[in-house]
Every structure is written in C-alpha cells, then in structure tokens.
C-alpha cells in the first residue's frame, strides 16, 4: 500500500540508518521492553484510497438530516445563522489553519493581529475592558468564570439561575468538584430568574452569581435589577451572553458585570453537531491578570514598528504550572478567526440589523402560532426563542414535523419538568416568511 | 497608526461601508420598543469595522502572508507534532451532512454522524489498548482534567479520600500540574535520572498512601522512552495509585506499543497532533480519553452506544463524573482524525511512527556534533539539544531560534523541558522529506558556525521577517489588549 503523506524512499531510509549507525528501524525501538511491545496488527479498518474513502464518507454524511436538507427551528444554544461565503475562504488560508499557537511573534504577526482584533470586537460587543483569545466553548468558559470568582473572592458558593443553559449548568457542576465549590440553583418565575429567591441565597460565602442574557428560554433577564442587588455585594456578577443579541441589547458591562462569557458560534461557525464552536471570556481591567488562556497584546519591535505578542503569560500553565489560573492550553483560534471575519462582514450596522431580524422573525412566528392555537407561554421580553405549549409530547410532534421537512424545536421536558409539553423554538434571520408560515401551519394542524 | 505599521481592520473602517448581505424581513415589523424596557436597548452601537468585502479579503490575505504554517515551511516545534494536515480531511469536514447538523436533532436523524463517532472511539481504543473511549474533551488539557476527575471518582468510590496527590515528572508538560490543581489535587514532582527518564528511587520516595496518580508522557518530553515503565506501573499500582498517560507523544509508538499494555489506566490523545486535525493557529483541538475497564463507569456522560446497528446516547450512568463539555465534543476535529485513521489503517499508522522515529534519530545524530546532546540513547519522535556551548560564546538558544526565522524555518520548542539548560526540542514528524531534514540540519550547523565566528550576527537576528524582535517587557508591563480609536 502506498501512503501519500509519507515521503521517505527505501534509499533515504537506508542512508539515514547508516548515519544513525543501526541496521534497521526496529533497533530504534529496542528501549521498549519486550513485555509491553505490541506485535500484532492494530484492530482497525484497512487503509482506504482517497476516492473510495471520500465516497464512503459522503454517503455517510447523506445519512444525516441536515439544516440544509430540512428547515430548522431548533436552537437552544446552537443556531443556524447567516455565514458569509468569505468566512470559509479566509479560514481555509493554510497559513492560518496549519500554524500553531503564535509563540514566535516575528513569523506569527498574522495570527496575533487577528486575535488582537477578535479581542477588540468582543470588548466592543460586551462593553468589557479585556477579552481573551478564546475558550473551548461558552459552557466551559462559564465554568472557568465560576472557578475564577471563587479563587478571587476566596469563597465557595456559586449561585446559578436555572434559566442558564442546562449543559452549561452540568459543566459548571463538573468543574466545581475540583475546587470543592457549592452550586446553588435558583428557579425561575415565568421564565426569568426569581430575583427574590436569588437575593435570599446571597451570603458571605457567595463567590459568584451566574445568569444568562438572553436566557436559555429566550427571555431577556432583568440585569438592571440584578445590578442593584449585587452592587453592594462582594460576589461577582457573571453573565453568559449570546453575542449576537448584544447587537441590539445593552451590553452586560453597563449593568456592572464582572465577567461576561459566551459562544461566538453565532458568528460564522457552522453548527457541526455541537463543536468545535468558540467560547469567549471578557472581564474588567481589575481581573486582567487572572484571565484564563492566551492574551495578545500590542507592542513595538526594535525599529518601533507596531506589532503583537502573547502577553501576561505568567498566568498560564506553561509558566506557572500548578499555580496557573487555568489548565487551558490550546483554544479555538481558527474559530475565533471565523467569527472575526463574520463580525467584520456585519460591521457596526449589520450586527444590529441581524439581531433585529432575529427578534422580528421570532415575533412573527409567535403571532402565526397563536393564530393556529399554539400559545407562547412566557410574557417577558425575548430575543429569538420562545417557549410554546403544544399540549403533546415534543418528541411526537417533532417526528411528525420531520416527515414534513422540518426540524422542530428543543424538547424542554428533558430538563424542565414544569414544561412537560413545551417546545423551545428558535427563529433566526435565515428563516423566510414562507418557511415560518408553513411551519406554523404544520404545528397548528398537528396540534389540532 | 504609524506609516510603517500594518493596518488593523478597524483602520480600514469608514462610516456607511458594508460587507453583509442579510435576508429580507418580508413582513411588517413589530415595534420592539413597545415591548422592551429602553434600559435593555443598546444606545451606542459596538465599534465593529465598516468595510467592504474586498477590503476584508485583502486584509486577511495580507495577514495570512504574515504567518508561518506547516504549509509554508518546516515546523519542527517539539511536543506539538506539526505534521502535514491532509486536504481531504478538510473537504470531508465541510460535507453538508456533517457540518450543518445540530446536536439536539433526534439521534435517528444523525446516524451517519454517530456511526463515524462510534468507529472512531473503537479505533482509538484499539490503537491505545484501552477498554473504552470518550470523544467529549475539547483538547489535551481538558482530557487530562477529565482523566484525573475519573481517577478521583474511582478513589472516592473506594472510600479512599486521602489520595490527594498527583505525581508529575520534572520534565512534564505544564498542563499536567495545572490539570492536577484544577481537579483538586496537589501536584508533586518526581525527578529524572541521568538517562532523562523517571528516577525509580525518587518515585519510590514520593509515592505513598496519598498518591492518586502518576501522570506520564511516554516517550517523555525529552523524546525518550521510559524503559522502566513496567516497574513504574508496579510501584504506582502497588501503592494504590493510578497511571495516567499523556498522549501528546503517541506519534512515536503507534503499532509498536500501547499505553493499555504498559499498565496505564487512563489515556488522553491529542487528535490535532498525532491524528492531523490541524492546529488552527492555536486550536480547536480534540482530546479524547480512553480508560481501563475498571474506570469505564466514571466516563463523562452521555456515552455513545450501539445496539443492533443503531447508535444512541446512554445517559443512565450513575457513577459518571458528569458532563465535561457541551454536546458531543469537537465533532469537526474528530471527523478529520477519523478520515486520517481510515486513510492510514494499521499498516500506515505503524509506518508513521517508524518514520517519525527514524527522522528524529537521523537529525539528532547529525546535529550532536555541533550541539550538546544531554541524553545520548536513541530517541523516539523528538529529541532535545542544549545550547550550552553556544551560550558560552554569548549566543543564547533564543538567538538561535530567531536566526532560524531568517532561513524560513519555524524554530524548535525552546527552553522546554525545564530540566535541560538552553533547551531546543526538535520534532521533525514523519511527513517531512529527507531533503527538508538535511536543509534544516545544514542551517543549524551554519548557525553554530556563525555563533563561533560572528556571534553578533546571530544575536541580532532576525533580519528578514516582517517585524524584528518585539518588546515583550513593555507588552506585559503596560498591557494594550484591544484597539482604541482614540489612541
């Protein structure tokens, strides 16, 4: 079998072995004790040639229903948004995707500057002073924020609204076990965090309070009220935020947030079955030296030219080892680049327009569903998602919708027992009037 | 902005320029202001750039030219396995039925994706000799933490609450001790011996009733195989601890040895290293974790399972450490790795390790005359030189690295591992030709000669890059972490 990624010829090999002074490559493995040597053949599939493998995998991909083959109203943290064609063209420049972390600034100015621009865009959207070069995803960024609040305040209790994404809450709980944090969940009142219950939970051991804006149920949480509550507290105000919504909504910084995190999947990153997406982490100047992950800073070279470097590395694992602020090493740089291109493409006006389109179209669906007798159950202001009571199991509805070419919404019964027959429906700018009309009609017909 | 500066995207911005093409509204708009309290409506728009499509393309194309990737030239960055990233993998990852599927779709509608994931899990288990694999962790460091949390859960399930320490060699990656801390353990260092491998006496000294685990990279970060692995496994297991395998260096041993057979209980892999998921300028990666049968019940939920040819997620795992990452891991990267494994098969992967090791040994033997080689036995896929001799001439390893830039090379990893003075860690990978290796070796020899004859030449390098050496001190002292229009 030929292997196109392996360039050494037999002649090369012989010459190299002579230089090394051994008879065969086998001799180079003489330090592997016989007891642990593997002599069989790995039990995996045989090597496959390019055309055959490409065909097989293309066939496999066609076994999946996709957001392109069907019309989707599924969101719940992952969205089908407009991706400008240029995004993939830029991230396909192999100088970007075949590079690694820019340790050598002289030959990595492209990546470093792109990250510096990303950091700036995240600061602009969130209103925060500092943003890092990216995290794995929104939920792990949130877990890092919780841990940071605990180490900074030297307290152990984290209060989380149950309107925060269920998987974010699960990830926070997993990360909390290391430092031994106590996680307290606060219920909701009509889809918004129960502010009174939250207030009652805050005590001298509270390190951080976490809400999502807009929240998992699509509602715009009352950050102004929470700000009043938290202003006089030492506990940190941590907000997880869909950055697209911030094109229209007041940024969390205006409400005194200490840490703002989220996922930039909404900007130029395909859903790809949930990953890789791209977490962001933004905070105040005060916490700048506690930020997890890479930071890029501006400086000058010996000739006084502006340039960029990785900076404040004394926070990081490769320098501080067990005292580092986080164990994160690789991040989501390429996806941060994709989001930067998408954000540049939208610009100052486009981002507002895109957020606005989402809000308009979601309201149109709400109205059409209502006409069909399917009621939206939450009354508060919302972004692009709504909770509707379909009076039947969501799985059953979704199966019937699938037959009509739709991917229905998220089944809230999975995580919210109080919403046993409720569907979380997302509407993005990508849905046309015809699609919304047809979906509402189908829902109404099935709902009967 | 100074004339000589390369512009930021914001510096191309002009009021009223656009580059978007959003769908139409098509309906009569709703009055949002009636419904939303004005305090939540943004007053000042975020300062995103206002640029045209061509401006964006020119900007990022120019930036890409200011960046060195594997496709630009040799990238022997030790411990990072900068091998060729196959283009076919990129095409597969962009197939619509993979790139545009949603994690909350009914599993019946994503059987193709699940089949791929299941096959990948099984293949990785076979390659590592482990019982079961999770694809959830996003990267190597997250895999380390995941593995340690499982080890922690295992000890706790045995009522063994006093195992608070994780042993790491002095040559370990920084993520190892950092992950131990995040998992709630205390990191303890074990020393290396004169052969560059773990000192068994010191291991016996630090191991004890408080040992939760030993984390080991094998071959280690010096590129040396831990020959005493069988004894080490015995020492740690006898003390009741578990053995953790950092898979950063798996590229050296595929088909030759498996962590599972060496006695490791938990293994993480870096799919962006060994299995060609591209490095992306820093990520995304993917860090699957394999475990022994004994630890399988602690794997993160949900677990991808197969029954009668149908794939589904098993949530009913009461002993699981929980979820470590939203959804199902970095699917897009896992898909690239799967494509690579299917391209190579068992035969190809073994050749990968054979040539990775051959290349490293060849370079090491040719370079050891000019550069100090602290450990002289055969190396595996990488080796570490010391710049001690050159330092005596006033030329530091940093200078050598900067001089390499002038010849179009990405330098090796420098000043790591920490137990080698002026370290230069070289990992050629198997995808480089002999001509490339020879070219790099000749350049390294030339730089060594320059250090003897004209040290200033090396000390002041680089000369041919788009910027010269950067003022990193000021960057850290007076951090500027974002663009401000005023400044």
Automatic annotation (TrEMBL), chain A:
Catalysed conversion reaction: N(6)-[(R)-lipoyl]-L-lysyl-[glycine-cleavage complex H protein] + glycine + H(+) = N(6)-[(R)-S(8)-aminomethyldihydrolipoyl]-L-lysyl-[glycine-cleavage complex H protein] + CO2
Enzyme class: oxidoreductase
One term of GO molecular function: glycine dehydrogenase (decarboxylating) activity
Source taxon at top rank: Bacteria
UniProt keyword terms in alphabetical order: Oxidoreductase
UniProt-listed InterPro entries: GcvPA, GDC-P_N, GDC_P, PyrdxlP-dep_Trfase, PyrdxlP-dep_Trfase_major, PyrdxlP-dep_Trfase_small
Subunit relationships: The glycine cleavage system is composed of four proteins: P, T, L and H. In this organism, the P 'protein' is a heterodimer of two subunits.
PANTHER family: GLYCINE CLEAVAGE SYSTEM P-PROTEIN (PTHR42806), GLYCINE DEHYDROGENASE (DECARBOXYLATING) (PTHR42806:SF1)
E.C. number: 1.4.4.2
Gene Ontology biological process terms from the UniProt entry: glycine decarboxylation via glycine cleavage system; nucleoside metabolic process
Domain Glycine cleavage system P-protein N-terminal, chain residue ranges per copy: 4-440
Job of this protein: The glycine cleavage system catalyzes the degradation of glycine. The P protein binds the alpha-amino group of glycine through its pyridoxal phosphate cofactor; CO(2) is released and the remaining methylamine moiety is then transferred to the lipoamide cofactor of the H protein.
Protein name, entry field: Probable glycine dehydrogenase (decarboxylating) subunit 1
Protein family: Belongs to the GcvP family. N-terminal subunit subfamily.
TrEMBL record, chain B:
Subunit comment: The glycine cleavage system is composed of four proteins: P, T, L and H. In this organism, the P 'protein' is a heterodimer of two subunits.
Name by which UniProt lists this protein: Probable glycine dehydrogenase (decarboxylating) subunit 2
Catalytic activity, EC: 1.4.4.2
Top class in the EC scheme: oxidoreductase
Span of domain Glycine cleavage system P-protein N-terminal: 51-303
Organism field: Sediminibacillus halophilus
Reactions this protein catalyses: N(6)-[(R)-lipoyl]-L-lysyl-[glycine-cleavage complex H protein] + glycine + H(+) = N(6)-[(R)-S(8)-aminomethyldihydrolipoyl]-L-lysyl-[glycine-cleavage complex H protein] + CO2
Gene Ontology BP annotations: glycine decarboxylation via glycine cleavage system
Record domain Glycine dehydrogenase C-terminal: where: 353-453
Gene that encodes it: gcvPB
Functional note: The glycine cleavage system catalyzes the degradation of glycine. The P protein binds the alpha-amino group of glycine through its pyridoxal phosphate cofactor; CO(2) is released and the remaining methylamine moiety is then transferred to the lipoamide cofactor of the H protein.
């Amino acid at each position: 079998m030929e292997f196109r990624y392996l360039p050494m010829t037999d002649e090369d090999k012989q010459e190299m072995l002579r230089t090394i002074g051994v008879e065969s490559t086998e001799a180079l493995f003489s330090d592997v004790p016989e007891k642990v040597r593997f002599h069989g053949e790995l039990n995996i599939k045989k090597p496959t040639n390019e055309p055959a493998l490409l065909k097989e995998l293309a066939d496999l991909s066609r076994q999946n229903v996709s957001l392109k083959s069907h019309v989707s109203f599924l969101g719940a943290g992952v969205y089908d948004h407009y991706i400008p064609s240029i995004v993939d063209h830029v991230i396909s420049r192999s100088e970007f995707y075949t590079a690694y972390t820019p340790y050598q600034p002289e030959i990595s100015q492209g990546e470093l500057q792109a990250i510096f621009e990303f950091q700036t865009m995240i600061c602009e959207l969130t209103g925060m002073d500092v943003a890092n070069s990216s995290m794995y995803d929104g939920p792990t960024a949130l877990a890092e924020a919780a841990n940071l609040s605990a180490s900074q305040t030297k307290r152990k209790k984290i209060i989380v609204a149950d309107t925060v994404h269920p998987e974010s809450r699960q990830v926070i709980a997993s990360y909390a076990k290391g430092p031994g944090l106590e996680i307290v969940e606060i219920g909701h009142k009509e889809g918004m965090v129960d502010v009174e219950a939250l207030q009652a939970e805050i005590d001298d051991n509270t390190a951080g309070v976490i809400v999502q804006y807009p929240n998992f149920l699509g509602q715009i949480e009352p950050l102004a009220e929470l700000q009043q509550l938290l202003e006089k507290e030492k506990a940190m105000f941590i907000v997880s935020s869909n950055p697209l919504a911030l094109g229209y909504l007041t940024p969390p910084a205006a409400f005194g947030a200490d840490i703002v995190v989220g996922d930039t999947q909404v900007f130029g990153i395909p859903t790809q079955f949930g990953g890789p997406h791209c977490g962001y982490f933004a905070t105040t100047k005060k916490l700048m030296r506690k930020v997890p992950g890479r930071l890029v800073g501006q400086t000058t070279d010996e000739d006084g030219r502006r340039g960029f470097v990785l900076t404040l590395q004394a926070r990081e694992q490769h320098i501080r080892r067990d005292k580092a602020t986080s164990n994160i090493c690789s991040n989501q740089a390429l996806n941060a680049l994709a989001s930067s291109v998408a954000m540049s493409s939208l610009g100052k006006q486009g981002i507002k327009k895109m957020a606005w389109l989402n809000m308009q179209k979601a309201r149109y669906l709400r109205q059409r569903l209502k006409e069909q007798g399917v009621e939206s159950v939450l009354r508060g202001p919302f972004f692009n998602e709504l909770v509707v009571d379909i009076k039947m199991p969501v799985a059953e509805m979704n199966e019937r919708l699938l037959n009509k070419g739709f991917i229905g919404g998220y089944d809230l019964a999975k995580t919210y027992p109080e919403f046993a027959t409720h569907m979380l429906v997302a509407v993005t700018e990508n849905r046309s009037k015809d699609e919304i009309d047809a979906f509402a009609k189908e829902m109404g017909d099935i709902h009967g | 902005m100074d004339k000589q500066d390369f512009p930021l995207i914001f510096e191309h911005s002009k009021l009223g320029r656009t580059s978007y093409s959003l769908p139409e509204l098509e309906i009569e708009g709703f009055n949002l202001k009636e419904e939303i309290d004005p305090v939540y409506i943004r007053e000042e728009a975020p300062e995103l750039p206002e640029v045209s499509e061509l401006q964006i393309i020119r900007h990022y194309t120019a930036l890409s030219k200011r960046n060195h990737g594997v496709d630009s030239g040799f990238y022997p960055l030790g411990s990072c396995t900068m091998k060729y990233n196959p283009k076919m993998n990129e095409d597969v990852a962009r197939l619509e039925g993979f790139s545009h599927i949603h994690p909350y779709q009914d599993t019946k509608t994503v059987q193709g994706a699940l089949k791929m994931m299941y096959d990948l899990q099984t293949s990785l288990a076979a390659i590592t000799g482990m019982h079961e694999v999770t694809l959830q962790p996003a990267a190597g460091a997250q895999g380390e933490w995941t593995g340690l949390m499982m080890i922690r859960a295992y000890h706790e399930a045995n009522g063994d609450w006093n195992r608070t320490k994780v042993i790491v060699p002095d040559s370990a990656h920084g993520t190892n001790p950092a992950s131990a801390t995040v998992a709630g353990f205390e990191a303890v260092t074990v020393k290396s011996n004169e052969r560059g491998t773990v000192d068994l006496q010191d291991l016996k000294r630090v191991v004890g009733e408080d040992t939760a685990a030993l984390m080991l990279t094998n071959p280690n970060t010096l590129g040396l195989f831990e020959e005493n692995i069988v004894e080490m496994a015995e020492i740690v297991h006898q003390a009741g601890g578990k053995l953790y395998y950092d898979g950063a260096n798996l590229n050296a041993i595929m088909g030759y040895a498996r962590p599972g057979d060496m006695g490791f209980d938990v293994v993480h892999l870096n799919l962006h290293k060994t299995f060609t998921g591209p490095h992306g300028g820093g990520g995304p990666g993917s860090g699957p974790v394999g475990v022994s049968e004994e630890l399988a019940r602690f794997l993160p939920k949900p677990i991808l399972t197969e029954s009668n040819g149908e794939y589904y997620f098993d949530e009913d795992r009461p002993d699981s450490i929980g979820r470590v990452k939203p959804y199902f891991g970095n699917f897009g990267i896992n898909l690239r790795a799967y494509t690579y494994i299917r391209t190579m098969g068992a035969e190809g992967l073994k050749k990968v390790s054979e040539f990775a090791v051959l290349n490293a040994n060849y370079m090491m033997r040719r370079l050891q005359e000019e550069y100090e080689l602290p450990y002289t036995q055969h190396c595996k896929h990488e080796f570490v030189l010391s710049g001690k001799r050159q330092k005596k001439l006033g030329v530091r390893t940093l200078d050598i690295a900067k001089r390499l830039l002038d010849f179009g090379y990405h330098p090796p990893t420098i000043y790591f591992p920490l137990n080698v003075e002026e370290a230069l860690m070289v990992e050629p990978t198997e995808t480089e030709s002999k001509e490339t290796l020879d070219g790099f070796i000749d350049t390294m020899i030339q730089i060594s000669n320059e250090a003897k004859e004209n040290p200033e030449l090396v000390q002041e390098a680089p000369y041919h890059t788009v910027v010269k050496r950067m003022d990193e001190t000021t960057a850290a002292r007076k951090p500027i972490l974002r663009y401000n229009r005023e400044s």
